[in-house]
TrEMBL record:
It comes from the Eukaryota. Pfam families: BT1. It is a multi-pass membrane protein. PANTHER family: FOLATE-BIOPTERIN TRANSPORTER 1, CHLOROPLASTIC, TRANSPORTER, PUTATIVE-RELATED. It comes from Leishmania mexicana (strain MHOM/GT/2001/U1103). Keywords: Membrane, Transmembrane, Transmembrane helix, Transport. Its main location: membrane. This is Pteridine transporter ft6. Belongs to the major facilitator superfamily. Folate-biopterin transporter (TC 2.A.71) family. Residues 239-271, 626-655 are annotated as: Disordered.
Length: 655
């Protein structure tokens, strides 16, 4: 491509990414994130209010329940990741799963848009929103797993690739925001749903022709097994263990199988690779399990498979065919990650339980479901994950759950959906969704930039305390508008909403969101970053859904808003200010005592498996490296002594 068009090499992000990974995969990743994750997903979720309130005619309390379902699909993407890694379909762990997800997600969105415009359609529509969103979440996590492999093989262009992907996600979000408002004002929000279905279906082409360039499952499993053996040898040399002359079974002595190849990539659920390597180097000899034997390679449909077939070898335990060869079961992946697999199943069952409770249960049943699901998921987290990761995981869930979401009555107030004669702001969808939405996106970017300068060298605990109070202040702007205090001081509703609710609230939200993102990135173990991150992000997403359910419970029990009376009047908002005060001001500080679950470390610090900061040790190594005297890799005893000394010094400082 660069030979025919040299100027393409100078295009920001594109030139470097294409040079590192190839034209087809870069185009496929960019188009998929633009069409599916960017436009299609934002259109589908952004029109939920207009579809439910205006088209189906449900009341505010009912929409408060159903609104949480639109994000539940993102809570179970870790289950998809584990399922796909454990059971390859038609020889691939991602390709055909993404194809099915796009076809199914588009079909569910199409049916959702075709449902009759009556109140009885709302519950079925909520289920279709969940299924369509789940399809988009599947494409997202499997794409992340694929390009994480690419970046492991060739790390240098990795930042350009990530920037390329997020550029198109942001472009898609802006396109969706601009599209949703006018269509909702025109009374035709279902057109947006049809567009979402079409865009999601278009992305199937990239998987049908394998523009991602995914290798077959047997090739990847063989590469991963070989990678473990290579890492074992490197670790032996690093720990200065004696090398052995005898060849390792399954490794050709002439290097024929690895000639011309870079270090193989690992899948996002290949866990404990480093642990296996370290265990091997401390043994008296290198013993390869009997599964890692030289086997004939039977598959010749892939270029890599042909190369291995010519070499006549296969590394690792071969996948087990099942269901007449439609699936290949990767037993090693399942056995090594069985706890995470079980936890992802528990998460999936919890999401389905919350889905059913929001649609079918009464108020007490929904409250019981929230309590049971929260208890089981939090306890399972401590069972399945390392302690420091589990504590951060539970904190992330509870932080989202206690910031109770009551978007339903607030949107009804701003948009005056019931055409009430009271003094409401009477915003249009074009202003509320499009103008304020675009401004809010830019405000969020400003919040992300400010976070790096303000909190990058502060502790996690202090940062979460400060950002929690910032979110409380941001939530008070809605109370000012609801009480109409802004009109008393001469500030119009549109100006107050843009600079208050849209800008201030969005900046405060991003300031509270960023430290958790950084913490998750710090804690995810190498070799299983994507699946652990998906678990933690999914649990946090479930927390947001739970917060909407809690908002519905509060509205139904004690603070009803826009409730239909016997005389037909449904414009009562006398409880809205109190509802905002309870949910946005009183509830968020409840998470402050739980900051003790977070590691006692700064945001810029590296964190070990016990949640302790390695700041002083890293700083000492940096100084030594600048002086040209960087020490060799420390032993475990030295690490223990360094950590103990740091703890002792911290205690003395505290005294």
């Amino acid at each position: 491509m660069f030979a025919r068009c040299p100027l393409m090499r100078r295009v920001p992000m594109l030139g470097e990414a294409v040079e590192g990974y190839g034209f087809k995969v870069i185009v496929a990743l960019g188009a998929t994130n633009l069409l599916c994750r960017g436009v299609a997903d934002r259109i589908l979720t952004g029109q939920t209010y207009a579809m439910m309130i205006d088209r189906y005619g449900i009341d505010v309390a009912r929409y408060q329940r159903l609104s949480s379902i639109s994000t539940m699909g993102w809570s179970i993407k870790a289950f998809t990741a584990m399922l796909c890694d454990g059971f390859a379909f038609l020889g691939y762990t991602k390709r055909w799963y993404m194809f099915i997800s796009c076809v199914g997600g588009a079909a569910f969105a199409l049916i959702y848009g075709l449902l009759p415009a009556k109140e009885a359609s709302a519950n079925v529509a909520a289920a279709f929103i969940f299924l369509s969103t789940w399809g988009k979440a599947n494409v997202d996590i499997l794409s992340e797993g694929h390009y994480s492999r690419l970046m492991r093989q060739n790390p240098k262009p990795g930042p350009a690739l990530v920037s390329w992907i997020w550029f198109w996600i942001m472009v898609g979000a802006i396109i969706a925001t601009v599209m949703n408002g006018p269509l909702a004002d025109a009374g035709k929000p279902q057109i947006s749903i049809f567009v979402s279905a079409a865009l999601q279906a278009i992305t199937c082409v990239f998987y049908l022709f394998n523009w991602y360039g995914e290798k077959k499952n047997r090739v990847l499993r063989s590469e991963d097994a070989l990678f473990i053996l290579e890492e074992t040898r490197k670790e032996r040399e690093r720990f200065r263990r004696p090398a052995h002359d005898e060849p390792v079974i399954g490794l050709p002595q002439d290097g024929g199988a690895t000639k011309g190849k870079k270090s193989p990539q690992r899948s996002h659920s290949d866990e404990d690779v480093e642990a296996v390597a370290v265990d091997e180097v401390h043994r008296d000899d290198v013993h390869v399990p009997h599964e890692l034997v030289q086997l004939p390679y039977e598959d010749g449909g892939d270029a890599d498979a042909v190369a291995d077939a010519e070499a006549g070898i296969y590394y690792g335990k071969p996948p087990v065919p099942c269901l007449f060869g439609l699936f290949e079961m990767n037993t090693e992946v399942i056995l090594e990650n069985w706890k995470i697999f079980v936890y992802s199943v528990v998460m999936t069952c919890a999401v389905i339980a919350m889905l059913c409770a929001n649609i079918l249960a009464d108020t007490l049943g929904l409250l019981v479901a929230c309590f049971v699901v929260s208890t089981i998921c939090c306890c399972s987290s401590f069972w399945a994950l390392p302690l420091v990761i589990a504590k951060a995981n539970v904190f992330g869930y509870l932080q989202q759950a206690v910031y109770i979401n009551i978007a339903s009555p607030l949107m009804t107030f701003y948009l005056n959906s019931y055409n009430c004669e009271e003094n409401f702001p009477n915003f249009s969808y074009s202003f509320y969704n499009t103008v304020a939405g675009v401004i809010g996106n830019f405000a969020g970017l400003a919040g992300v930039s400010a976070f790096n300068y303000i909190f990058s060298k502060r502790s996690y605990r202090l940062t979460f305390c400060v950002t929690t109070f910032a979110q409380v202040l941001g939530g008070m702007t809605d109370i000012v508008i609801v009480k109409r205090w802004n009109l008393y001081i001469g500030i119009p509703d549109h100006a107050m909403y843009i600079w208050g609710a849209a800008v201030v609230s969005e900046v405060c939200y991003m300031l509270g969101y960023m430290p958790m993102v950084v913490l998750l990135s710090r804690l995810c173990p190498r070799g299983s970053e994507s699946v652990v991150y998906a678990l933690m992000a999914g649990f946090s997403s479930l927390g947001r859904s739970t917060s909407a359910s809690l908002g519905a419970i509060i509205m139904e029990y004690g603070l009803p808003v826009f409730k239909m009376r016997e005389d037909g009047y449904r414009c009562g908002v006398e409880n809205l200010a109190w509802l905002l005060f309870v949910c946005n001001v009183c509830s968020p500080p409840l998470v402050l005592p739980l900051t003790l679950l977070l590691p006692k470390a700064r945001i810029c610090d590296a964190i070990d498996v016990d949640g302790k900061a390695l700041r002083k040790k890293v700083d000492a190594e940096m100084v030594a490296g600048e002086a040209g005297a960087l020490p060799s890799s420390p032993t475990s005893a030295e690490n223990t002594n360094a950590t103990k000394a740091q703890d002792d010094e911290a205690k003395r400082e505290a005294v």
